[in-house]
Amino acid sequence: MHITLAPMEGVLDHLMRDMLTQIGGYDLCVTEFIRIVDAKLPERVFYRFCPELHQGGFTPSGTPVKIQLLGNHPQYLAENAQLAVELGSHGIDINFGCPAKTVNKSRGGAVLLQYPEELYAIINAVREAVPSSIAVTAKMRLGFADTELAIENADAIYQAGATELAIHARTKSDGYRPPAYWPWIAKIKQHVPIPIIANGEIWSAADAQLCQSQSTCDNLMLGRGAIALPNLANCIKHNAQPMPWAEMLALLIRYSAYEIEGVKGCYYPNRIKQWFTYLKRQYPQAQDMFTQIRRLNNADEIVKTLAQ
Predict the structure, then answer these.
(1) Is 98 a catalytic residue?
(2) What is the pLDDT of residue 264?
(3) Domain check: are 69 and 150 in the same one?
């Protein structure tokens, strides 16, 4: 079983990737998407999204990191993919799953699931631009408004030369509302011979087992579940017990040091509050703690409250 830490825009930055991979259980990380419009981006953009490139494309604990690109122009995506690989990315992932309205309005993410021929053109261009030894993968949803093109989309990605496909088992219209339709992944898997990774609504080891059974996929991708329960990958892989609240508090304080000292320190209050919205799903204590910090906008005050 391989577990990938999902790309979550605005959430799973390099600091969070560092912390979660130190806890363990992850075989690969995928960055937040880098938006490609009509140009080859400068190297500094790739280093900003993926500082791990300075260490051979690995997190400090040794987990490889793959850069994700988002856009609709095959040639520009190909040129940027080539640069990302030259800088040390462990493969290239293309985002066909983002449901955000602002992204979809600019013809990026899940909106492209209405056009299988465009998925093919993008993957094919990227595949031709990077060495054959480099993995070219994609992440998609079951569709845009419905699942009518689910199999056709997956097949287009496969036919274009993708080596692997992660499927979030909901449509764009479904958003993040439960349930995730894992049996749909099994249907797609019958028609597409490349490895498939199942994603969506995995919050516990029990969810993971059910997902594997219904999707017929051994390999999983964890996103929101990994934020809500930081040792979720170990719970799935090694039957570890969920992290106790006392350890979770210590992790929050440790994250505080990372974020305040890191390049996004000014965003720390928003980041920590965002994290609590996920923690409340797993930890009853998180609601009370969130009530104490939700009106605080000073990082030192938040850390002091956490420490108490």
Answers:
(1) yes
(2) 45
(3) yes
Count of structural domains within the chain: 2
Rounded distance between C-alpha atoms, residue 141 and residue 87, angstroms: 29
Longest dimension (CA), the chain: 56
Query: CA 272 to CA 300: how far, in whole Å?
Result: 12
In terms of domains, do 183 and 201 share one?
Answer: yes
> Is it true that the peptide bond before 179 is cis, omega within 30 degrees of 0?
yes
259 shares a domain with 145: no
Give CA–CA dist 293/6, Å, rounded.
27
Query: Is the domain of 281 the same as that of 159?
Result: no
Which of 98, 211, 217, 235 does the annotation list as catalytic? 98
- CB neighbour list of residue 271: distance below 8 Å, 6 or more residues apart: 259, 264
Q: Which residues of 19-49 are buried (b: 16+ CB within 10 A; e: fewer)?
A: bbbbbebbebbbbbbbbbeeeebeeeebeeb
Statement to judge: residues 200 and 259 lie in one domain:
no
Domain ranges, residue 293:
245-307
Q: Which residues contact 70 (CB under 8 A, 6 or more apart)?
A: 33, 34, 35, 36, 94, 95, 98, 103, 108, 109
Residues 276 and 215 in one domain: no
In degrees and rounded to multiples of 5, residue 162 shows phi and psi of -65, 145
Nearest CA to 210 out of 170, 240, 239, 182 is that of: 182
Predicted confidence (pLDDT) per residue in 134-166, tens digit? 999 999 999 999 999 999 999 999 999 999 999
Residues 89, 28 share a domain: yes
**Which residues of the chain have a pLDDT value below 70?**
259-267
pLDDT digits (tens, 9 = 90+) for 30-59: 999 999 999 999 999 999 999 999 999 999
165 phi and psi angles, rounded to 5 deg: -140, 125
**Are both 232 and 270 inside the same structural domain?**
no
Burial of 152 per CB tally in 10 Å (0-12, 13-18, 19+): middle
Residues in the chain: 308
Cα separation, 230 vs 236, whole angstroms: 12
